[in-house]
């Protein structure tokens, strides 16, 4: 079995994330252009506005105060105009950001889900559903953090920084040089600190994913927890996961504590130092009172923005760490893929042939070896044998939930490895032993067999599967939601809904994996009638342990140890004294039913 995705042993790369996000944003060039333009204008306005404050202060501090009323009013009017324009572009900036983020997040969700859902059955059995869900959500939702950090923090700060340095350089080149050097050094230190913190954030993200997986596993198996009185055991499992998360979280918090402390200390030094230098220049008559105020505004603004750059860098690395887990899935190739140039399956009568098929779960266990089976078009066969013999594996290989290790499987002469998976599965109706329903309405669950079916066709299929009666007895009828995996229904009710879904699909090949095992005797008799109608004209493979349900099959294939031990009709196999089928029949006829599951 393929192990869960390892996120701790692979190198972390931010480039695929940025590339994916940039490609997603480029789909909306107008929104992206408006966002960047408005962000640029907002920052320019933030640089220009303090210039009017400087002039205003200089004018107030001049000796000709009585003659400055008109000039002061004019300066205030210009200052107000700049603020209004900044407000307008600020609103434009936010609106374009909201639209761009929302559209791109929708696209990213679709991309992540579309890739994830096409992974093989083996992939999903090796990973927690809750963890995979979290990875998809993080991949999409982290876009807003990365975009806002890039636009609001890096881009806008760079514009403000350049404008402020330019203005201060004009007043005093030395002052401009000092601030530029300090800002560059401060940002460089922030980048180094963020890189140091990044592995800590990655570890925390992985610990959170592990915690989510444990929670999801326990909650989804709540009934098993109750039946085994294992709540304390689950709390112990959760406690271990919480311990891992706590240690990872505390390492990041302590790192933040040091980072913010050092950052704050440097901010105090530069602010006091620059003010002292400005004071010296003012005393020498090189700066006016207005210049002094201008420098104060710019310095405070730069300190605030550059100090926040450190937090922005940490947010960026944190978002990249969160997204990286989904990137790992993107970089995990499908174990079952359509061949290059795969064509749709052209179904004829539905003949199935397995030739020299071998299959095993890695190096752990060989299930089938040199297995050969031919099912004629329209033939109805049953697969029987002890648990682990390989009965269900045959059907999973036919559905290409796994690929064969050796050999080939053909449907109407076409290798299923050379046709598209979707077209193959469109030709097969499958009713598993334990059907899983969606937390949707009963109508939607039945219609899943053929999404374009009318309500009348859905109801007709439900009647044939004998679930119409209990559905009509529900307060909301066909609109009743069945709960996660159909937990609001009994096992027999879920089975009948699954059979109704297969009836509605009406595919030429039908696979029944203990399809009546969860039904009571009365329901089973009704369903057997429905299945007989459903099986007419179809190629049918039935997996069964209750041999009384397959006595009328055209052929019964006995599988043992991954090979065919015997085959024939019920009467022929029962007549074979000492054969496996005859032994199973003797046990069941004596009242002892082998209810184990096939593999």
Which descriptor suits the 3D outline?
elongated
**CATH topology heading of the domain at 16-330:** ABC transporter transmembrane region fold
* Average pLDDT for all residues: 79
Main beta-sheet annotation: 6 strands, mixed
For the record, what is the CATH homologous superfamily label of the domain at 16-330? ABC transporter type 1, transmembrane domain
Over the alpha carbons, how many angstroms does the gyration radius reach?
35 Å
Percent range of helical residues: 55-70%
Unreliable runs: 1-12, 591-599
Instruction: Please report which band the strand proportion falls in: under 5%, 5-15%, 15-25%, 25-35%, 35-45% or over 45%.
Output: 5-15%
Cα-to-Cα separation, first versus last residue: 14 Å
Strand ordering within the main sheet: 6-7-8-3-9-10
Task: State the name of the first-level CATH class of the domain at 16-330.
Answer: Mainly Alpha
Please give the CATH architecture of the domain at 16-330.
Answer: Up-down Bundle
H-E string = HHHHHHHHHEEEHEEHEHHHHEHEEEHH
Number of strands: 10
- Structural class assignment: alpha/beta
- Tally of helical runs: 18
